[in-house]
Amino acid sequence: MRVTCVVNGETRQADDVWPGESLLYVLRERLGLPGAKNACEQGECGSCTVYLDGLPVCSCLVAAGQADGRTITTVEGLATGSGEEQLDRVQRAFLATGAVQCGFCTPGLIVAVHDLLARDPAPTDPDIREALAGNLCRCTGYEKIMEAVRLAATS
Amino acid sequence: MEFLRPSDWAEALAAKAAHPDAVPIAGGTDVMVDLNFDRSRPAALLDLTRVPTLDDWGTDGDLLRIGAGVTYRRLIDELAGRVPGLALASRTVGSPQIRNRATVGGNLGSASPAGDAHPALLAAGALVELASTRGTRRVPVTEYFVGPKRSVKTPDELIAAFLVPARPGAEQFAKVGTRNAMVIAVCSFALSLDPETHAVGTGIGSAGPTPLRATEAADFLAAELPWETRGPVPAAMANRFGDLVGAAARPIDDVRGSADYRRHALAVLARRTLAWAWTDLGGAA
């Protein structure tokens, strides 16, 4: 089947899509957007988090055909350019605080934090933990991640 | 594999009638896991996310009718005051990403004994609205589940909505798990106290082959609670209620917990939810 959707502001099209494959697979393997990561494939880890029509979702749990005609923003779509100055404030905060270890969970966390700060510009620590409950960091770097969110909220 | 995408309810029912083996998909939080792990290869997927009426909710006489496609996120944001027990249960579902997609319709479709919505629906006395090209029927949720992941829904039927009383009583929900998010219930319990009719509703999750009610416990509480005075609930009454709830469970030993632990935990959850719900009604602590 053919899937057409708006990804990071551009209309993109993928052909010969198997209807049972996930949006994550379409993004990574068909559209050349490897930012969202493939880890658990069951919605547990949050590393594949993207915006679908403005809401953060696990792209591994969206069937490719369900994304047809929808609007998607991936971590690649958050920065206005490739220079460090053009990164989103959440990305800059993760860099500044060293909230990145192996980096695998980072893209999903960036999207989840971006959404949190759009809804709540000054979240408390419990609010942050609740908002990030669906994103696992197997390096267990949560303290630096908390620091990054606090910094992003004030920058 | 075919991908069927009806754009309205009539088309969806026609598609299901023509393809009874098609697997309906809404939030995908169960269906896609099975596909990703090669556990199932259905002949067709029936995408319900383009059927607008499934996202509607509104009153229907004395009942509140909530479309099967309303997500947990929306239940929490829009309906917490109208379905308080279900909203509490919704907050324990998965993570924000999961709640943005997952639906009560999907929970009912999967019919897992561990589904988080089920105890709250049982306690509230909900109806499940099933539809096919043959017609529409409303099944009490108490009769809906027939076994692990099995329900009375026939292969040509789709879940249209669920209905609960438009004026809820005091409703509470509690769940035991290994962490506060992304967890399948070890066991869960929902309680509803109706101050008008003095009726008590109960729902037990993840402690039997299906979600269960604790009818003996509910009858005991309905008869014994000091409804008129709203005086304190005697400890002996709360303990007896908890014991009856534990006895109503039919748990097994499994990877998430032992049967004994589940009975014990359910008795504790029953006492706690009773104390919270009684306080909600202005009862003495």
Automatic annotation (TrEMBL), chain A:
<dbReference type="Pfam" id="PF01799">
    <property type="entry name" value="Fer2_2"/>
</dbReference>
<keyword id="KW-0001">2Fe-2S</keyword>
<dbReference type="GO" id="GO:0046872">
    <property type="term" value="F:metal ion binding"/>
</dbReference>
<dbReference type="InterPro" id="IPR051452">
    <property type="entry name" value="Diverse_Oxidoreductases"/>
</dbReference>
<keyword id="KW-0411">Iron-sulfur</keyword>
<dbReference type="InterPro" id="IPR012675">
    <property type="entry name" value="Beta-grasp_dom_sf"/>
</dbReference>
<feature type="domain" description="2Fe-2S ferredoxin-type">
    <location>
        <begin position="1"/>
        <end position="78"/>
    </location>
</feature>
<keyword id="KW-0560">Oxidoreductase</keyword>
<dbReference type="GO" id="GO:0016491">
    <property type="term" value="F:oxidoreductase activity"/>
</dbReference>
<dbReference type="Pfam" id="PF00111">
    <property type="entry name" value="Fer2"/>
</dbReference>
<dbReference type="InterPro" id="IPR006058">
    <property type="entry name" value="2Fe2S_fd_BS"/>
</dbReference>
<dbReference type="InterPro" id="IPR036010">
    <property type="entry name" value="2Fe-2S_ferredoxin-like_sf"/>
</dbReference>
<keyword id="KW-0479">Metal-binding</keyword>
<dbReference type="GO" id="GO:0051537">
    <property type="term" value="F:2 iron, 2 sulfur cluster binding"/>
</dbReference>
<keyword id="KW-0408">Iron</keyword>
<dbReference type="InterPro" id="IPR036884">
    <property type="entry name" value="2Fe-2S-bd_dom_sf"/>
</dbReference>
<protein>
    <submittedName>
        <fullName>Carbon-monoxide dehydrogenase small subunit</fullName>
    </submittedName>
</protein>
<dbReference type="InterPro" id="IPR001041">
    <property type="entry name" value="2Fe-2S_ferredoxin-type"/>
</dbReference>
<dbReference type="InterPro" id="IPR002888">
    <property type="entry name" value="2Fe-2S-bd"/>
</dbReference>
From TrEMBL, chain B:
<dbReference type="GO" id="GO:0071949">
    <property type="term" value="F:FAD binding"/>
</dbReference>
<dbReference type="InterPro" id="IPR005107">
    <property type="entry name" value="CO_DH_flav_C"/>
</dbReference>
<dbReference type="GO" id="GO:0016491">
    <property type="term" value="F:oxidoreductase activity"/>
</dbReference>
<dbReference type="InterPro" id="IPR051312">
    <property type="entry name" value="Diverse_Substr_Oxidored"/>
</dbReference>
<dbReference type="InterPro" id="IPR002346">
    <property type="entry name" value="Mopterin_DH_FAD-bd"/>
</dbReference>
<keyword id="KW-0274">FAD</keyword>
<dbReference type="Pfam" id="PF03450">
    <property type="entry name" value="CO_deh_flav_C"/>
</dbReference>
<dbReference type="InterPro" id="IPR016169">
    <property type="entry name" value="FAD-bd_PCMH_sub2"/>
</dbReference>
<dbReference type="InterPro" id="IPR016166">
    <property type="entry name" value="FAD-bd_PCMH"/>
</dbReference>
<dbReference type="Pfam" id="PF00941">
    <property type="entry name" value="FAD_binding_5"/>
</dbReference>
<feature type="domain" description="FAD-binding PCMH-type">
    <location>
        <begin position="1"/>
        <end position="169"/>
    </location>
</feature>
<keyword id="KW-0285">Flavoprotein</keyword>
<keyword id="KW-0560">Oxidoreductase</keyword>
<protein>
    <submittedName>
        <fullName>CO or xanthine dehydrogenase, FAD-binding subunit</fullName>
    </submittedName>
</protein>
<dbReference type="InterPro" id="IPR036683">
    <property type="entry name" value="CO_DH_flav_C_dom_sf"/>
</dbReference>
<dbReference type="InterPro" id="IPR016167">
    <property type="entry name" value="FAD-bd_PCMH_sub1"/>
</dbReference>
<dbReference type="InterPro" id="IPR036318">
    <property type="entry name" value="FAD-bd_PCMH-like_sf"/>
</dbReference>
